[in-house]
Amino acid sequence: MHVDGCKSVCLMMSLRTPLPTLITLFMSLGVDGTEWSVKYNPTKICALKGSTVFINGSYTYPAELEVKEEFWVKEPFDREQDTPVYCKPTKDSGTVQCYVDKQQKFSLKLINVTKEDDYYFRIKTNVIEQKWLGDPVKISVTELLVNTLLEVIEREAAVLTCTTTCSLTDSPTFIWYKNGRRLSSNTNPLHLRPVSSEDAGSYMCAVRGYEHLPSPAQTLTVRCEFTM
């Protein structure tokens, strides 16, 4: 968490090691004991390129303050001026929507994500020096790719794996297509054993709910084994 001008209690511990380490713990407290905090769910997201992403969360603040503004920023932004503002609850765009309710719960909806970014929730109060910047929510963006041997010998085994550059959030269900037609198997990897000439063809994978965002096609060739 990042805090600007907040009252802090600092606890320092010195560890006796060959290279002494100084550990400092900062905790921001209001006069009534309420802490500043911003909590996200989830804190890290791996999403398909072109998909929709939801970030939910909640915050607390010292009761003697009055919240004046709540909004989202992302890198790069000016931490002193809080510009540019990425999303305000009253100014949704077609691809970015954000909300805050009276119970101090908030959400951010990103439609058609295309690149990796860090997003921060910002709170400003009636005291200029008293404002809070949450830790970043990191969104990684990936595309699907079918990984397999391009050629296998008939009666051997073929393994096709739908791969990503990061682990997709929410444990997705994978879908397979052969020559544009959906297969019954939802397993990943997809095992073909033993392989026959009928298994040759063009394979794609997708994630349930995002069937419109499939992987590029990968062609599997089955070579006949000649015996003398």
Automatic annotation (TrEMBL):
Top-level taxon of the source organism: Eukaryota
Gene3D superfamilies listed in its UniProt record: Immunoglobulins (2.60.40.10)
InterPro entries to which the protein is assigned, alphabetical: Ig-like_dom, Ig-like_dom_sf, Ig-like_fold, Ig_sub, Ig_sub2, Immunoglobulin_dom
Record's signal peptide: 1-33
PROSITE patterns linked to this entry: IG_LIKE
Keyword Iron: no
Domain Ig-like: 136-221
Keywords: Immunoglobulin domain, Signal
Listed name of the protein: Ig-like domain-containing protein
Organism expressing this protein natively: Electrophorus electricus
